[in-house]
Design brief:
The protein is of the alpha+beta class. It contains eight helices and six strands, in the order αααααβαββββαβα.
Length: 208
Amino acid sequence: MAIEWTDERIAALDTAQLKNLRENATRREVTALVELCTTELAKRNADKPRRIGQPRSEAKQFEHDMSAELATVGKAMAEKYDLSEATAKAKSEGVKGFKAHKLLGSDGHAKLGGMQRDGSVAVDRYISYRRGTDIASLSVFLLKDQPIEAHEFQVIAPLSMLDGGKPVAEIRPTATAAQKQSADGGLSFKDLDSAAAAFDKVLAKLTA
């Protein structure tokens, strides 16, 4: 006995079943059933073609991958040191206008730096921690119109906390006065492991 396809029966099907039923009805030229299925799919907006996202460019893929790697370093540091916002606030009592830094971005990756946000560099992604008036950050940095291979990993922190640190103006010579940097010192590296080790040393001093 053939199934009598009512509006209620059609509505009870999930979208995949509904599309399959319509295909079968189309093949068998059951026009009334095809129309019922199409009407229900339209109600669900299920017939709209899926938007296929554009593949990331090489630079964007690099930025995405490095943001994830920086976040991995941040999570490891958060397990080693107390980098909670609550502790930062408690240890910074009396510092006017103190605002704790979220170590990572809301998406769980590295945060978007100001120099990338204003378009002056190609990549500026970072993780950071603040206690009192001192801020330490670990970032991946790539100037505009440079090959990906030219990127650097940078640790920006107070000069007094850096072993062999340089003035931040030497580390980021393209930064303008309006692009105020978070500390007066910095170190640059070509590999993340070395930069992470330097960041670790700074955090040890900052959280002592």
